[in-house]
Automatic annotation (TrEMBL), chains A, B:
Originating organism: Rhizobium jaguaris
Full protein name: Dipeptidase
Gene3D superfamilies according to UniProt: 3.30.70.360, Zn peptidases
Domain of life: Bacteria
Pfam families the UniProt entry points to: M20_dimer (PF07687), Peptidase_M20 (PF01546)
NCBIfam families, per database record: PRK08201.1 (NF006053), PRK09104.1 (NF006579)
Keyword Metal-binding carried by entry: yes
Keywords from the UniProt entry: Hydrolase, Metal-binding, Protease
Keyword hit for Metal-binding: yes
InterPro entries: Cyt/Met_Dipeptidase, Peptidase_M20, Peptidase_M20_dimer
Amino acid sequence: MSGVETYLDEHFGAALEDLKAFCRIPSVSTDPAHADGITKAAAFVAERLARAGFTNVEQLATGGHPAVFGEIITDPKLPTFLVYGHYDVQPPDPFDKWKTPPFEPDERDGRLYARGVSDDKGPLLIPILVAEAYVRAEGRLPVNLKVLIEGEEESGSPHFEGTLQTYRDRLGCDLVISADGAMWRPDRPSMTVASRGLVAFEVTVTGASKDLHSGRHGGSAPNPISALSKLIASLHGEDGRVAIEGYLDGTSPPDARIIAAIEAADFDANAYYREIGSPKPDPIETGRELLIRQWLEPTLEFNGISGGYQGKGTKTVIPTTASVKITCRLIVGQKPDHVVDVVTRHLEARLPAGFALDVHRHGPGSEAFFIDPDLPALKVAEEVLGELLGQPPLRVAMGATIPIGASFRKHLGTEAFFFSFSTSDEDYHAPNEFFRLANFRLGLTAWAKLLRRLAEAM
Amino acid sequence: MSGVETYLDEHFGAALEDLKAFCRIPSVSTDPAHADGITKAAAFVAERLARAGFTNVEQLATGGHPAVFGEIITDPKLPTFLVYGHYDVQPPDPFDKWKTPPFEPDERDGRLYARGVSDDKGPLLIPILVAEAYVRAEGRLPVNLKVLIEGEEESGSPHFEGTLQTYRDRLGCDLVISADGAMWRPDRPSMTVASRGLVAFEVTVTGASKDLHSGRHGGSAPNPISALSKLIASLHGEDGRVAIEGYLDGTSPPDARIIAAIEAADFDANAYYREIGSPKPDPIETGRELLIRQWLEPTLEFNGISGGYQGKGTKTVIPTTASVKITCRLIVGQKPDHVVDVVTRHLEARLPAGFALDVHRHGPGSEAFFIDPDLPALKVAEEVLGELLGQPPLRVAMGATIPIGASFRKHLGTEAFFFSFSTSDEDYHAPNEFFRLANFRLGLTAWAKLLRRLAEAM
């Protein structure tokens, strides 16, 4: 083992304690009730960077939650890499489904359970610990490293583009490496080369101006739950695909290389439905079809619906409003603004008399992303993973969104790739999120190797 | 003025204080969090009955919230009337829409504002105060009076039939007079001669066994909000009517006398939609058509819908379940059990693969009710109202449900009619419920007159 690797191995216990301390902070960005957790998590990152040997550590004002910056400039002649991650986490509800409390990290069966441990606190801590190990064990990092950890990724990163624009000089680099992202499967190393975009909004339908008794008024008063149901039922066809005029404007047929990767993956659809605990829906026949839908087709998913009486038992009311939270995953060529426009037009055209419609956007959204397949750093990363895991990684797309790829290209003019040790089955947007401790260890070794190899290659 | 009327007039201030004290008790029957309010309200009624001179006052065990009984037996040879009312109230939410807190009665503009003041605390207090006035001012009531005040009306009266069965001997009477119910319009006296039945249930659709990330799984995992929307969108046709096979089984064409009353009413549909604060829906053209839908057609209304993320902002989740609370208003001939069966069959037949369906019933429900149009007591009541108000009351149906009519007929073998001084515009299932103080006063006078006339007529 090299000095760095020995250091990392000897300090693994302390690294794990760092991760647990980080996970105890409830940094939920989407809910103002957790403002204090955001403040504490940003301070934690800044303090940890400083302790690891980073300089110019600062909480950058963004207009929203702060982003945390730090850098180690070993030698201006060496290549400079910018590491991206996010310290904010998903809301933990439903609370009652957690086996142990979401913000009390619990180690069991070789896993650490906590909200945010896999997305993205564990993965983002790895490069910081590796940089520290280089400084302590070898006296210097083989590259220049900058770190940018934002606090609004789980809220759609509404201020991220502005942040890149404002601080573009300070963030200048040769390449961005994202510690966010996820290995596709626990049993097969993978490199993510494309991800879907995202746009989020909420649709509210209003009927009468006050709640009405459903006995006296039933049959004559407009029921917004009824209107909303009919409206949103019209958004998908029988095959489960989005059925909105203009939704695919700007898109092209899928990349043949990704289709080839899907065919190579030989994905088992039945195993997938067993894993998520549901019978197989009718329109999806094969693993190939399933992956095409997840990776290469846009979606419109309902994330929450609400209206009228929410308590126990029954209440004979016709409510004034009903609303649904929607996120659309976008493929290459779809513009978030245009997608919201065509959805709004679709709903407006079908809104029955007696109702008002409101479409409220959550953040600017982000376009889909794909990496230049010939990027040299991508090949270096694939070699590192291949050597550590004994087989070359699969190039995969992902259904989820990592908007930063497109943003870095736009504002800094640099490419970005994903090097994360989270795995996509780690329930990171569900109760009982976990991070495999073996992957935490593997990630430390891999990042150490990656930085050395990149220094040699570039 | 007779002695009773003078007494009522002189003690109106104290009556109003009684009503306010009653309204301060948060007796929400549908929510277990308010169990204490139920206990206090039942005790309040029992205490007030005893103080008014009622004997054998008792809280009857029902298997749910207690019903309160009391009686004044003036002379076994006189006719005996049983007064019905309910001390429980609707849930007060949404709290933020109340101008003054729901359980802090506020007097303004000749109205008393509080949850439950119109439905049914004010109207049920009237006959108790009138009985007290007879006892105090004239030494005796001109009739025998029994009182039965239940505590589960706003939860669908799940134990009411059992209560009538258990206590049928004690409840024996010549006629039931309900203090629950409502005048149809503030500007026109009316007698309710029919009401729709009710059955309540909740439909839950389940997809995967855990919450899923809507990016990774979007497009392949079953979304229960989507399935539920499509299912419930299929329950109504384009004209807003229920479109379920077998829904009208057992029904007959509407009673021509009620249609005639509707035509006499000359109801203004545009004024109705102005009042509830919504544009007119397309399928309803005229006031006649509107009243036919409210009074003579069954409904299926959505009272609440819920699923997935309910907080602020956005959460990229595909939830495991989505559910909707439903109440159906029934017309004469529709059986609650059959209605739930045909709705369940309709939904099951349309449930897509990938989902599970659960239909959870809230209580037994109740059939529609209509009063024998030739009931002599009905004519007496109409005369009393006509004399006090200067014009004969209109005979009307009501869209809402007063299940007790059918229940009393079934278990005690007695007819029931409605003599309530609540008015249907008093927002009794909405924020800012109120009771007109002029009608509280009028109700006292009218009940005093009614009891004397019934004693003479029967």
